[in-house]
Specification:
single chain; mainly alpha; 2 helices
Length: about 80
């Protein structure tokens, strides 16, 4: 593998990294809100309601962040396509 191939591979990883990170961020939001809800359930003895609310809040926040990311990437792609034409 020569230096030119390594540069192409590095460029591909740099371009794919935001898409790989969005999945990890969605999972992290759900897990963090699950843990917050579980902690609140233990603190206030409301099992399992705050944990369920936390899970749904984490899922909602994950999808909000996902759609915001996709919208920004779509606008960026449309702008670059207009500049090329």
């Amino acid at each position: 593998m020569n230096l030119k191939d390594l540069n192409h591979l590095a460029k591909a990883y740099r371009e794919a990294m935001p898409y790989l990170a969005i999945g990890v961020q969605m999972a992290a939001m759900v897990i963090i809100m699950f843990l917050v809800g579980k902690w609140a359930d233990d603190k206030f003895s409301t099992q399992p309601w705050l944990m369920i609310v936390g899970i749904f809040f984490g899922i909602s926040a994950g999808f909000y962040h996902f759609f915001k990311f996709v919208s920004a990437e779509s606008k960026k792609s449309n702008t670059s396509n207009k500049n090329e034409n």
